[in-house]
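Page 37, continued from 36.
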């Protein structure tokens, strides 16, 4: 077991609260000031919001892959501030900025504990196009999704002692994740198969640790625009930054 995977599995269930809402320091937006950027048409018969690309950083980029403004969010599916951003900003971001072809939005997972790792695996259990909608559903129902985790913390910690191919399967059963995802198109059999793939969830955990160190991401949500960290974690803070950069 790699060190990064061991951290993801052994991190206490309370880690999500401690790590949520940080990482917005060291902002550098001076280089992002720019003139208004003209809309870029999507290929005929398509919408930019329907196009998803898996990036070299194992992120899920929604929109024009060649958009002049590239927005990246490091998010945890267990982070309340990330959930607030998704609820308040996702529709406006998609309709007003992604669909113009001017902004692309890449979602990258930062893992805050074993339950977060299970959720990150489950939202990837269908097609790349489903990752953003499923993540949005988790964010919109976060308290409901996590209630089983809070109610069964000891049993979940015990599940981590199981063999790799069984630990996430058992964790999701204890937490009650299967019913939530089954109602959203991921059958229990499909979910169990995804969670039994230890190599897949280990890759998610390793990427989270490696990139957090590489980019000094100490909490979620953390946003980057064209490679510059931006001092924002709510939509009301982020939208003016996009507009000043030319998305208007």
């Amino acid at each position: 077991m790699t060190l990064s995977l061991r951290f993801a599995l052994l991190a206490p269930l309370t880690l999500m609260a401690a790590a949520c809402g940080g990482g917005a320091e060291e902002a550098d937006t001076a280089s992002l000031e720019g003139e208004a950027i003209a809309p870029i048409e999507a290929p005929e018969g398509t919408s930019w919001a329907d196009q998803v690309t898996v990036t070299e950083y194992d992120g899920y980029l929604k929109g024009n892959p060649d958009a002049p403004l590239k927005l990246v969010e490091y998010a945890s599916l267990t982070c309340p501030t990330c959930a607030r951003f998704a609820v308040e900003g996702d529709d406006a971001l998609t309709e007003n900025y992604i669909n113009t072809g001017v902004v692309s939005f890449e979602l990258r997972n930062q893992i805050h504990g074993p339950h977060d790792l299970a959720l990150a695996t489950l939202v990837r259990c269908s097609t790349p196009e489903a990752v953003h909608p499923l993540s949005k559903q988790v964010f919109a129902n976060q308290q409901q999704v996590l209630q089983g985790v809070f109610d069964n913390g000891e049993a979940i910690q015990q599940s981590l002692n199981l063999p790799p191919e069984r630990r996430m399967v058992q964790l999701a059963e204890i937490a009650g994740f299967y019913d939530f995802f089954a109602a959203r198109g991921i059958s229990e059999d499909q979910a169990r198969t995804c969670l039994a793939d230890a190599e897949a969830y280990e890759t998610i955990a390793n990427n989270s640790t490696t990139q957090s160190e590489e980019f000094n991401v100490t909490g979620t949500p953390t946003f980057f625009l064209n490679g510059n960290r931006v001092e924002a974690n709510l939509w009301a803070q982020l939208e003016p930054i996009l507009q000043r950069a030319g998305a208007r």
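The radius of gyration is 18 Å. Flag for discussion at group meeting. The first helix runs from residue 3 to 10.
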